[in-house]
Amino acid sequence: MPSFSLPPINDNPDGGWGPSSSNLPERFKFTDIPYAPYSKSDKLGRFADWNETTTDNRQTAVGAPSAQNTRAGGRRRDGAQAFGSGTASAFAYFHVEDESSFSLVDNKAAPPRRGGAFMRGRGNTRGGATYNTRGGAQRGGRGGVTANRTAQRGGRRGWRDWDKNTRTRESSVVISPSWSMIEEIEFNRLGKLRLDVDEPEDLDSYGRLFAYDKSYDRVTTKTERPLQLVDRIKYNTTTTEDPVIQQLASKNTATVYVTDVILSVLMCAPRSVYPWDIVIVREGNSLFFDKRDGGPFDTVTVNENASDPPQDPPPPNPNNPNEKAQEAPSINSATSLSLEATYINQNFGSQSVIENPPPPAVDFAHPNPFYGPDETEPLASCGYRYRVFDMSVTEDEDVRICVRTEVDAYTPGSGNPREGNGLVTIRALNEFDPRAQGAGGAPDWRTKLDSQRGAVVATEMKNNSCKLAKWTVQSVLAGAELMKIGYISRANPRDNTRHVILSATSVRPTDFAAQLNVSLANGWGIVRTVTDLCMKLPEGKYVLVKDPNRPVIRLYSTPPGTFTGEDEDGDGFDEEQVDSAA
């Protein structure tokens, strides 16, 4: 039977791991070789790890703790001192000879990174995101730098940031010292108002409608059509000058009288950025909401809600006689773009209808109330529907509002338009220059409209939130089944006189209101609040003004002759003075 003798056990009285230097036998005492103590949690590294490199290009030492294992496998508490930390480099091997000719042959495929397959983007991939050198992050890895450049080019970020805070807009109307402010309401208060209104009552209809040309729905960027100049008359008469409303008011049909253009601005007031004003006249128990001729209600805004909207050049300083005369405004200024958008909307609405039958034109119950017997120019396709909405909260009160609504065409084969079937409103969005200041980062429509329409629509919903909301509210008030939206662009970005139609789409107003997050209940709550506020005041003339630089509306009491040219007390302003000041 073989014999077995127990070897001697050398205990370490210092409490460390392994024998102490004093208990080592003589033959194991290598005083010329450094000894690296290590902890139980440390893992022994590999003899040679070709996949792991350190910052100083040294291979992992034999028997030294691996950096990865020390970091992940040790599971030490933060702040705990590890045995041997800082001494593993004593066994490291330094490359002192030139090994540039040495190469490692490895036929194995490289393991995939965490987060998925290899990305093709520029920069380092971490979890599927590409971080480029310009500070932008792009999912998917490809196009990170391109997306960042596009944002800088389209949004013009960083350009004249020092001047943005100093730009102030002028009020749409001159506030006279004789006006007394009655109420000031912030937009955050308006956003909390709610009022549910039932279906309206149709009173009467006027005008003539043509059929919408469905061929425009098939237009693409490759089959674009030029926008034509169509000479047609379309009226935008204010409330008190409407003969139909005057007849209805004499019969006490409602409490409030307004047009859909004015009402939509009031219902979408929390989205507005540019200044506007509404003239309110109280006569007896009736309220009339009016607009001024040449005011903000006669034009269409462009990129009002963009982060850096288009700007008008500052007016010349009258106190500086040495200042040079102001140059002509740029075609991309706010005023020029507004006039251009108005021109586009009027011509696209007249061009996209069929005037020569078939299908025939549809005449409403009465002819156009604004077309006089001496007029010789042809009328544009337009129908007026006078409708009454009940804004009463309780059964005891009777607060009704009469609205003159407009429709632009009808869809053939959708029923009788005289009964409200197949009615259409036509609007147009316009592109001026994606690289100009105020473009709001909009993509190039000619390259993105057919393939990425959703991105184009999302950008327009962001930059023109107020304008699209007003169009949607007008379509809902008129009872239109469809709203046609055309996409019109300049034939040349430097020429604002020639345009082409790139596409046209159809949306249902109620569905589009949900996409825009437009609450009609909130809009009716705003209208009812302003109505109650004015009905508590004595008879007279008032002005509701949107502050040009703050989200606030103010109600002023004005002299009776304001905006009429009479100016009996010398305190009012006639329309020419107001327009020149605005």
Task: Provide an overview of this structure.
The protein has helices at residues 67-73, 144-155, 161-164, 187-190, 243-250, 260-267, 334-351, 445-448, 453-463, 465-478, 509-515, 520-535, 575-581; strands at residues 124-126, 129-131, 137-139, 180-186, 201-209, 211-212, 225-226, 256-259, 277-283, 286-290, 353-354, 362-363, 382-390, 400-407, 409-410, 423-431, 482-492, 495-507, 540-546, 552-558. It has 582 residues and is of the alpha+beta class. It has 2 domains: 28-99, no CATH class; 180-316 and 329-581, no CATH class. The strands form 4 sheets. It has a 10-stranded mixed sheet. Strand 9 (277-283) and strand 10 (286-290) form a beta hairpin. The radius of gyration is 37 Å and the shape is elongated. It is found in: Cytoplasm. It holds the Pfam family eIF-3_zeta. Residues 565-582 have a biased composition (Acidic residues).
